[in-house]
Amino acid sequence: MGIHGETTTVAEKRGQLGTVICARCGEVIDTLPTNGVKTMYGFCGQPECRARKDADEGDAR
Ligand SMILES: [Zn+2]
């Protein structure tokens, strides 16, 4: 009886990365080493995409 492999994801093999995505345009801003594969949202820095407190509530969840 052998050990029937554990399921290893590609992400685990390569090191776990979090992806930072612009909440506005969906552009990948950056990747960060994190504890687990995660997707985070930020703003890419374009004036159009910057977080504004002034009105503009895109999609309400
Ligand atoms: Zn953006």
Strand order of the largest sheet: 2-1-3
| pLDDT < 50 runs, ≥5 residues | none
Query: Percent helix among the residues?
Result: under 10%
Question: Looking at the chains present, what oligomeric state does this protein adopt?
Answer: single chain
Number of strands: 3
* CA-CA gap between termini: 51 Å
Computed structural class: mainly beta
Q: H/E order of the elements?
A: HEEE
Please describe the biggest sheet, giving its number of strands, its sense, and whether it closes into a barrel: 3 strands, mixed
Q: What ligands does this structure carry? A: zinc ion
The whole-angstrom Rg is 17 Å
Sum up the overall morphology in one term: rod-shaped
Mean pLDDT, as a whole number?
77
Number of helical runs? 1
Into which percentage range does the β-strand content fall? 25-35%
Write the layout of secondary structure elements.
Elements: H1 10-14, E1 17-22, E2 28-33, E3 38-42
Parallel strand pairs: 1-3
Antiparallel strand pairs: 1-2
Question: Which features characterize this protein?
Answer:
61 residues, mainly beta, 3-stranded mixed sheet, 1 helix, binds zinc ion
